[in-house]
Write a structure and sequence with these properties.
- A six-stranded antiparallel sheet has the order 1-2-3-8-5-6, covered by helices on one side.
- It has a single domain, classed as Golgi alpha-mannosidase II (Immunoglobulin-like, Sandwich).
- The chain is an alpha+beta fold.
- The protein is 13% helix and 27% strand.
- The model has no long low-confidence stretch (mean pLDDT 86).
- The chain is built from two helices and eight strands; from the N terminus they run ααββββββββ.
- Helix 1 runs parallel beside helix 2.
Amino acid sequence: MIRAVLAATLSGLWGVYSGFEICEAAALPGREEYLDAEKYEIRVRDFAQTSNIVAEITALNRIRRANPALHSHRGVNFYNCDNDQVLVYGKTLSSHEDVILVAVNLDPHHIQETGFEMPLWEWRQPDSGGLNVEDLMTGAKWVWHGKHQRVHLDPAGLPFAIWRLWSESGA
């Protein structure tokens, strides 16, 4: 899921090999290619098997379709956080009408928590200002106050968070 969210949110174009969403990852010995990749054979796969990330890939595709800032590699800004195992970045359109903030746990084995700076300055707000937030994976909405925020990312659950931000004025 870490690789998927990085590709889906940082690149303007992304796609996955068939089998990625059911976590097929057996490598060919000594090569960077997957064993049983569809370029070598036609395979019938069981997309309902346990331990898959079909729902997450589906959600990432839904989020990409709904947010034009994710349709380009442009408009990326990286933000300060206090944990080197977490990457926090934003994607925005030049019009500033679609702002997506992403936090990703880069450690696939351990829970990571970090404080980070919410980019209030991009809305010309003071450090004590607030922004509306929507968690694009869960649909939950709230208001963040102040530029210092925290996030807890568990690789056993969801190793990333994707939020849409907007100001009270709707900008």
